[in-house]
Write the structure tokens for this entry.
Amino acid sequence: MKRASALVVAIVLLVLGSQTTLADQPDGKALVEKDCQGCHDDRVYTRPNRIIHSLKDLENRVRFCETRNGKEWSEAQIEAVVQYLNRAYYRFR
Ligand code: HEC
């Protein structure tokens, strides 16, 4: 009996542990691919007359588009998407 409950505890800890890791590091690229293709594709991020000129603009825009899209992303998810878009397209410092 003792061993069985130790095993259950180990499994619960494992599952909890892996969920925290996922929640700590959302995948910005996957989020954009899944949730951000409704109105525009990734060409807006590189168009010549783009409306984003700083990291702050980018963050505001991600929040705006995310809410408009009826999503309820966590702060960590917003941050991950801002980081991903900046890394992949904008390259602000
Ligand atoms: C409800 C429609 C809609 C959805 C869904 C949407 N967007 Fe947008 N997005 C817009 C509009 C409208 C613009 C402005 C386009 C324009 O000015 O031509 C825009 C522009 C942007 C820009 C600025 C592009 C530039 O000029 O550099 C970014 C960044 C952006 N969106 C990110 C996102 C992200 C991240 C998501 C996923 C959460 C998303 N969008 C989903 C409507 C949407």
Notes: The pocket of heme C is lined by residues 32, 35-36, 38-40, 44-45, 50-52, 58, 61-62, 65-66, 68-69, 71, 81, 85 (CB under 6 Å).
